[in-house]
Amino acid sequence: MLNVHKIWLLSCLCVVVIIVLYFQAEIARLEDIYHRLEYRLVQSRTESRQFFPKTVEKDDDDLVVIYNRVPKTGSTSFVGVAYDLCKKNHFKVLHINITANMHVMSLNNQYKFAQNVTQWHEVKPALYHGHMAFLNFERLGTSSKPLYINLIRKPLDRLVSYYYFLRNGDNFRPHLVRKKHGDKVTFDECVEKGQPDCDPNNMWLQVPFFCGHSAQCWKPGSHWALQQAKANLVNHYLVVGVTEEMLDFITVLEAALPRLFKGATEHYLNSNKSHLRQTSSKLQPSQETIERIQQSNIWKMENELYEFALEHFKFVKKRLLIKEPNGVAQIFFYEKIRPK
User: Fold this and answer.
1) Region at 258 (left for phi over 0; alpha for psi -120 to 50; beta for the rest)
2) Among the options 103, 131, 213, 267, which is catalytic?
3) Minimal CA–CA distance to 305: which of 216, 208, 198?
4) SS3 track for the chain
5) How far apart are CA 198 and CA 300, in angstroms?
6) What residue ranges define each of the domains in the chain, with the CATH number in brackets?
7) Would you write out the chain's pLDDT as a tens digit for each of its 340 residues?
8) Mind listing the pLDDT tens digit for each residue in 223-269?
9) Options 129, 213, 236, 267, the catalytic residue
10) How far is the C-alpha of 329 from the C-alpha of 320, rounded, in Å?
11) Angle made by CA atoms 70, 300, 219, in degrees to the nearest 5
């Protein structure tokens, strides 16, 4: 009799648990429906409270983006995506070729370039790309200025890649003979012998590219240059990605600038652009070499810029790509507009 009573209590308890779970599921389902309806209601109300000028399409067609690409940061892979999309998305891609591959323009060319970029309406919208330092258009008196984008890479990885690139080339143009072709000295051996090709001063490139055309920018170890590079990165660049997160960089650009980069993420995933240019016969440095390089002030400052850029990119990415708790993307609208 006692066992029957226990079975009856257990059965009742199971029924209660099932009922509770059912109602919890129903509450969650109804809350989800409520949030969706609430979002649709907000969307319908914002149509009259958002301001979309009638010239939006014209403004989009006036868009100019400059990608002042740092060497050996994966820039060829990214530019390859842009060239594949330009015909489909109806924009121009232009390569900036400076005499002798110089990274800094003369003063008269700075002015001419700024005028070309802002006034050459026949090629707009456009993406300009080239290995050149940041150029402040406000300083040159232009009435408008372009949007800047860029990629940055871990400084030692970039230096090692460039070291072997000069000796072994890459899979993009495998038959092109580089200036250090035939040199079999490894990066480890170079560091051990203290040779100039692996001098930490050669790592001083990403800071100058973001710093700009000032003489101080190109002085290795300049703290002023580092702070200027950080300020420019935040104040003058729409987005700066990192080579190690190329896909996220492209996805952010597609979300922020669909006029140029619509379809870029899918194209990158389904094409060979993710590994368009790889340095041949690249050897990873030993731990001893890494520790030796990391003792230099140049590495510390270049790495500080990289870490700063990475943190900022993650912040931008989170705000742009991650949805709100109710599962919808962030929107904005206007209200309390007076007078009516």
Assistant:
1) alpha
2) 131
3) 208
4) CHHHHHHHHHHHHHHHHHHHHHHHHHHHHHHHHHHHHHHHHHHHHHCCCCCCCCCHHHHHHCCEEEECCCCCCCHHHHHHHHHHHHHHHCCEEEECCCHHHCCCCCHHHHHHHHHHHHHCHHHCCEEEECCCCCCCCHHHCCCCCCEEEEEECCHHHHHHHHHHHHHHCECCCCCCCCCCCCCCCCHHHHHHHCCHHHCHHHHCCHHHHHHCCCHHHHCCCCHHHHHHHHHHHHHHEEEEEEHHHHHHHHHHHHHHCHHHHCCHHHHHHCCCHHHCCCECCCCCCCHHHHHHHCCCHHHHHHHHHHHHHHHHHHHHHHHHHCCCCCCCCCCCCCCCCCCC
5) 16
6) 58-321 (3.40.50.300)
7) 556 666 777 777 777 778 877 777 777 676 666 655 555 554 555 444 555 555 444 568 899 999 999 999 999 999 999 999 999 999 999 999 999 999 999 999 999 999 999 999 999 999 999 999 999 999 998 888 999 999 999 999 999 998 988 888 765 555 554 566 678 899 999 999 999 999 999 999 999 999 999 999 999 999 999 999 999 999 999 999 999 999 999 999 999 999 999 999 999 999 875 555 566 567 899 999 999 999 999 999 999 999 999 999 999 998 887 665 555 667 777 888 889 7
8) 999 999 999 999 999 999 999 999 999 999 999 999 999 999 999 99
9) 129
10) 8
11) 60
Q: Is 129 a catalytic residue?
A: yes
Q: Tokens 């008196």 label which residue?
A: 141
